[in-house]
Structures are given as C-alpha cells and as structure tokens.
Design a protein that fits this description.
The chain is of the alpha+beta class. The protein contains four helices and eleven strands, in the order αβββββββαββββαα. The chain has helices at about 1-20, 100-105, 165-170, 175-180; strands at about 25-30, 35-40, 50-55, 60-65, 75-80, 80-85, 90, 115-125, 125-135, 140-150, 150-160. A five-stranded antiparallel beta sheet has the order 6-5-4-1-7, with no helix packed on it. A four-stranded antiparallel beta sheet has the order 8-9-10-11. Strands 2-3 form a two-stranded antiparallel ribbon. A hairpin with a 2-residue loop joins strand 10 and strand 11. It starts with a helix and ends with a helix.
Length: about 180
C-alpha cells in the first residue's frame, strides 16, 4: 500500500511539472516610474528579497502564477539565470513576440546615445513606447505605433499627443484612450 501511495504521489508531482512546462506564457515587463521590475525570492514584497532588477521592456517566460485574481498575481520566472517571482500587475501579455520589431521601428528617433525605448502597451496592432531621454537637453516622450502591411510603423511621438490625435491617425478610439498615458 505504501508503494502505491508513493507511486501516486510521484505521478502527481510529475504531471504537475509537465503541466507547468506546457502552460508557459510570454509577457513584457511594463513598469511605470522606476523602469524595472524586481525578481524576488518569494511571492511577497515583505518577505521576498530582490534578486535582480528586470529592465522595462524585457520579454519574460512565466512558469506559473499564484493568485485569486488574474490582475493581482505573483508569477514564477527566470531572468539571467536567477529563478524567482514577479508581480504581474507590471506585465503585459499581448504580443510579447512583437517587442523587438516595435523597438526597431523607433530606433530612428531613439538612438542609444540619446534615449532608451521600452514598450509600454500592446493592444492588437497598436503600441505605445516610452522614449526616456538620457541627455539634459531633451524630454521624455511617448511614441505611438501601428501595424501596417505586416510591419510596425511609428506614427507619431511627443509629449502632448491626445487620444483624439491618435484617432485622427486611424487608431480606434477605445485603443487610443488606453495607449495615451495622460
């Protein structure tokens, strides 16, 4: 009987690990303000110590999330060889595979010497990118992109664009309201 119980326990653990591997989800780090998401040793800001800072715009593979609600969860992941937990309120799940192409589309206006670009929001074929200035003589801005003909295209960027401006460029009004950060 003991062997049977141990076999059932082992099979349960093996199937949980297999389910965990097959349910991997890709997400983009979207951290307002400080520009990083902490990878923590435990799923808690009080108990878990910060292992490493994950930069804004990083694409992560999530192993599993632990929560009662989808928007307020801690998720297991690995970053730069360290395993830990991230808070999913600062993750975007849509179109994570498009991040490199989106960042290439803004490279002409955000060169590494002048600014850092990081994807803020991805909604279908529309995106906003934070352009964080590195120099004293420039301002941070937000770029707005649209997927046209299978490619991401920078439509406009600046500090004072409104949802109405984006609608004028052809963005759906509900998408424009979600992309503009102010």
């Amino acid at each position: 009987m003991r062997r049977f119980v141990l076999l059932l326990l082992w099979l349960g653990i093996a199937s949980a690990v297999a389910a965990d591997a097959s349910s991997e989800i890709r997400a983009v780090v979207t951290t307002p303000g400080d520009g990083f998401l902490a990878l923590r040793s435990e799923a808690s800001t009080q108990r878990g110590r910060r292992l490493i800072k994950i930069p804004h715009g990083t694409v992560l593979s999530l192993k599993a999330c632990d929560s009662a609600t989808a928007r307020d969860a801690w998720c297991r992941t690995t970053y730069e060889g360290k395993r830990g937990w991230v808070y999913n309120r600062y993750l975007s799940y849509a179109d994570a595979d498009n991040v490199p192409e989106i960042l290439r589309a803004v490279a002409g206006v955000c060169t590494p010497a002048w600014c850092d670009a990081s994807v803020e929001k991805l909604i279908g074929g529309y995106a906003s990118v934070l352009l964080t200035c590195k120099k004293r003589d420039c301002e941070n801005a937000v770029g707005f992109l649209m997927r046209r003909g299978g490619r991401w295209t920078l439509i406009d960027y600046g500090t004072g664009l409104t949802p109405q401006d984006l609608v004028g460029y052809g963005f759906p009004s509900d998408v424009a309201r979600h992309l503009v950060p102010w």
